[in-house]
Write a structure and sequence with these properties.
Number of helices of chain A: 10
Largest interface: A-B, 56 and 56 residues
Oligomer: homodimer
Structural class of chain A: mainly alpha
CATH class of chain A: Mainly Alpha
Number of strands of chain A: 0
Radius of gyration of chain A: 19 Å
Shape of chain A: elongated
Distance between the termini of chain A: 49 Å
DNA sequence: GTCTATAGATTGATAGAC
DNA sequence: GTCTATCAATCTATAGAC
């Protein structure tokens, strides 16, 4: 959008697509609905992106590239600090370095309120083409985290670390999905969420406590 | 299917639909493909079930009704045993009573090899109509588990127990999804899975250890 | 119960004027 | 870059013969 304060068509389409893909899923969201809500012409998606799938890839890349930079820096900072102090990195600081920015990204980066939900659903997406677009962009960072976690837990074998990390990823993505939906809330519970919303600080600490306990078990 | 050893059309459609819904998702699976693979006519789905959505509901009900009976009995057994021994139920035995049959159901009930994947995806389904069909059938049991967990953890407030249970459900459903897919496996890792498959016994124990540690934290 | 045939709607994509 | 118009494919669902 450059210096203008009005976003151009391409940017508006990305914003609307991100929100609709997050809340209704890729296959349930038609290009007609995206372009209509973005105030653009139906043909604009194919002009600017080439296809619906290419649009999804751009939606991911726009946020994942800066987010991955943040997470990589934090992970490497934990690794380097441990090295300088001549000790192993601890699982809790590694998990925090990865998970905290993942969940908080919606607050750090303005306009990405719905990206959390989108990412939370990405791994559960049934269509492998769609799922692979996401996996391709997340895999290098996931591998780094896995590698560092192994060095942090030298007494555990690869399989055990791998599965515990999967359990932690399951908890994390489930939380990310829930932040956008509430059908799972038991009747009569947590009505305070309705009024004040979820306290993200407390939620992140609860989540980190949970996965750290299971990881260090 | 009664006494015949050949399943009737209705049953064959349910089997194929379960598998295709699990691996490709509800919206990505057409009635044409289901009926073709089931060796039935396209119109058979609407004759036997009324609609595609009603078919999905039958796919869920066929397995969830017996599975829920098992889980309820196990949960109530834990509760009653604790009451007889005049103590509180423990979180680990409650989680085991719920999670173990959930994951092992594919082995207990012949023909339900793909139901695990389907359930693992159900909560992440973007379409709320589809998601609600599942939630409606699982909610009573989830509420029972939540209630018993609260009594097992009297020092924790409702919100904390609620979120920890959500974290555990996230881990569990993520595992159920992964049992059918392997794109997330880091390159070069866990090749033994390819040959021997995942050892379900070890996986279940790892998962229960992980979520119990986080729950009792 | 099973079949053919088709209605009726929606989709992603594109050609071509401006 | 944006628009209209439309194509070609797909889908669920149903009517009606057998």
């Amino acid at each position: 959008m450059g210096l203008s304060n009005v976003k151009d068509t391409r940017e508006r389409i990305l914003d609307v697509a991100e929100r609709l893909f997050a809340f209704h899923g890729f296959h349930y969201t038609s290009l007609r609905r995206i372009t209509t809500e973005a105030g653009a012409n139906l043909a604009a998606v194919n002009y600017h992106f080439g296809s619906k799938e290419a649009l999804l890839e751009e939606v991911f890349k726009r946020r994942l590239i800066p987010l991955n930079t943040i997470r990589r820096e934090k992970l490497e900072a934990v690794r380097d600090r441990a090295a300088k102090e001549e000790r192993l990195p601890r699982p809790d600081e590694l998990l925090r370095a990865f998970i905290e920015p993942t969940i908080r990204f919606c607050c750090l980066e303005p306009g990405s309120e719905h990206f959390s939900t989108l990412v939370g659903r990405a791994l559960a997406e049934p269509d492998s083409t769609v799922r692979n677009i996401f996996i391709q962009h997340i895999m290098p960072l996931f591998s780094l985290l896995f590698e560092l976690l192994q060095s942090a837990l030298p007494d555990l074998d690869r399989n055990t670390v791998f599965w515990r990390l999967q359990f932690a990823m399951g908890s994390t993505t489930h939380v990310m999905r829930m932040l956008g939906k509430r059908e799972l809330l038991p009747p009569g519970l947590v009505r305070e969420m309705e009024s004040g919303g979820v306290d993200l600080d407390i939620l992140v600490e609860n989540l980190l406590g949970f996965v750290t306990a299971g990881m260090e078990l």
